[in-house]
């Protein structure tokens, strides 16, 4: 009975300890923000969006923690939705200048890789449509006995996974067992999308990220 009681109370005790640690961390963050507000001009402090982001994140976290605690008292299950705002603390503190620079570089790189990504998606959708026409009407079955390449969205997902080669060669075996010539379809897909498009995508991401990172390091500190 004693062991059972400990086992039942352990999750609640763990939640209390973690909540206490979270409150302490939030108080430390709030103390840092208050100290910075005292040593900074008021108009300068409120014009800095980093300070506002930290303040909003603290308020959201405390509110979520209070709601979660009240619901736990009444044995109502809930989700800690404020956890998604925790990266704000990592990005917006003064010691995180390099992280902010890297984040800006990623943000500035995204528009420039959109065209390559759209071309890749177009190729994936076209190959999926070809696979539906080639295999969908032949009543093929997978090793588990499920219909093979009957649903277009499932085909898109399977071929997307094939780009990573995670499901190779399993995804092509039903077609290969029906006719070995169908292997040419998957070989062409892998060459175009895995080797050409992924290499091109990686090159564009790397070059643009490096360019924006040089601009950030050569410009004004964030």
TrEMBL record:
One of its GO terms (cellular component) is membrane. This is TPC2 protein. Pfam families: Ion_trans. It is found in: Membrane. It is a multi-pass membrane protein. Its main location: membrane. SUPFAM superfamilies: Voltage-gated potassium channels. Gene3D superfamilies: 1.10.287.70. InterPro entries: Ion_trans_dom. Keywords: Membrane, Transmembrane, Transmembrane helix. The chain crosses the membrane at residues 12-31, 52-71, 113-132, 181-206. One of its GO terms (molecular function) is monoatomic ion channel activity. Residues 17-211 form the Ion transport domain. The keyword Ion transport does not apply.
